[in-house]
Every structure is written in C-alpha cells, then in structure tokens.
Amino acid sequence: MTEKSEKSDSSAKSDMPEMSEFGDRPVVDTSRVPEVPVRLVDDFTPELIDVGAHHLCPGCGEPIAMRLIMEVLAEQELKHRALAVFGIGCYTAFSNNLDCEVLQALHGRAPSLATGAKRANPNLLTITVQGDGDMVNEGLQEVLHAAARGEQITCVLLNNGVFGETGGHMTATTTVGQRTKNTLEGRNTDDHGYPIRIASLIAELEGAAFVARGSVTNAGNVARTKRMVERAIEVQLLGTGFSFVEILTMCPTGWFVETEDAPAYLDDTIGVANFAGVLRDSAPATSVE
Question: Does 88 reside within a domain?
C-alpha cells in the first residue's frame, strides 16, 4: 500500500462513528451524539408521493397511512387504474401530492362520488380517503348505503377521534375517556353518549365483502394494516363487493399529549375500544393476477 493510499484510508476511517464488534457485525455507539453529521443516503419517498415532506403536525399518523396506501398501488402497478376520492380534513393536503388521479368530494360525500365514477368506468380502481369527522359525522349515510349496495369501491377511514382540521373537538367515533378540545377530561357517556364503531356496523352488512381495522402505532401494526389495504384492493379487483379499512391514527395536537406519547395514548384509548383485525372477509381467497 502506498503512503498516499494509507493516508486516504486513515482519513476515511476517522470520519466513521466509533464501532465495536458484535459477532461479525459492527455496532455503532449510540450513547453519545456522533461527531460526524448524519447524511442522506437515499430518498425513501414512495414512488407515488411527489414530495416526502408535509405540513401536518409532528406525530400525526395520517402521513403513515397515506404512505402505505400509495406503496400498495405502486407495488401492484395500479397507478394508471387508480382514482382517489378525498374527503375534507387534514389529510386533504395530500391530494395535490400524489401521482395518481384525485377527485375532491364535498364533506362526507366521497363514497357517492366514488360510486358514480366506478359505475361510469368499472375498470377504475376507486379508493376513498376520509377522516372520522368527514365519514361518520358528516356522511354516515353515504358509506353505510354504499356498503349495503355492495358497491365495488374501497373506502379507507383515517380515525383519530377528533376533528383535527377544525381544532380537535370530539367526533362521533371519539372513544369513552378520550381527550379532545371539548372533552378535556375525556369523553363521558352521560354528556356525550357512546361512540359509533363504524367498521363494526359495516361488517354486519351483506354487501360488504371485506372489512378490517388496523393502526399505525408501530412498525408491526403498519405492516399488518398494509396487508389489510392489499386485501381490500384485491377484493375490489375481484368484483365481489364493498371493501373497507379503518386505520387508527395519532393526533397528539388534538389529544393534548406529547408527540412521543401519542402512539401509547392511541393504544390505551382508541385501541382498547376498537378490535384490530379482520372483521369480515367473504370474498374468494384467490389472488388477482
């Protein structure tokens, strides 16, 4: 080795964080801040999301939900068949950031708009994206009737139990004990009645072929929820009926909790009150080619 190459090798090593050996794998010392600044090694923005950055609150779960939906469309090469119909909420900001066709619905009316588009062009893969305020407060009848008719569409509910865009007050899905802007001590049944568990209602309708509820509180739940979205889309492509996925998402701003505490708060409130898993799957198991 020449003197020049030895110096170059020594300089490269000095830029590396200190590491110890664990078996045959290097372990980075994370007990202190590294002296060398971190650097971007790759852009992990999904293919169908134009810009990875967003303006939603830190800790919001909706960007995670949107990411997994768009990953499914890209992985299954369904971009050119996909039509996303958005409701009104914080998530609406994503409608201009997706590399697929998007329609904007009036408050609560996304299932009806999606129904019209699908009936006009049955080859479309039609997905609605709504929050709990939009779907369950403003447009409950729309999604229930679409499910009852067995419309060949997929509806996705982003449920954090608050009207996030308009200040964080209670919605029809807010669980008992959950904190919102107008239930600072937690929702109680004497004053506010009981929450509507929309996925459970839809699962009772014969027109619904697939109904599931997931969350995005950790990597495992994200992976399970992604499989639910994959199955919901598969059911639509099979043409066996209405499909629905409820995704429980974090809203630390609306819940008045610290960002890092939001996943645990979701698990302890909304998660406890809502069964996570497949509630109904009456469609054939055959995969769509």
Answer: yes
Inside any domain, residue 34: no
Q: At what angle do helices 219-238 and 62-75 cross, to 10 degrees?
A: 50
Q: Tens digits of per-residue pLDDT, 222-267?
A: 999 999 999 999 999 999 999 999 999 999 998 888 999 999 999 9
H helices within 48-171, ranges in order?
62-75, 110-120, 132, 140-149
Note down the domain range covering 218. Answer: 62-281
Report the number of distinct structural domains present in the chain: 1
CB 127 within 8 A of CB 69: yes
Please state, in angstroms and as integers, the Cα–Cα distance from residue 282 to each residue in 72, 224, 274, following that order. Answer: 21, 19, 21
Tell me if 46 is assigned to some domain.
Answer: no
Give the list of residues 6+ apart from residue 185 with CB closer than 8 angstroms, or none. Answer: 179
Domain assignment present for 57: no
Q: What is the pLDDT of residues 133-156, one digit of tens each?
A: 999 999 999 999 999 999 999 999
CATH of the domain at 194: 3.40.50.970
Identify whether the C-beta of residue 225 lies closer than 8 Å to the C-beta of residue 239: no
Cβ-based burial of 138 (10 A; exposed 0-12, middle 13-18, buried ≥19): buried
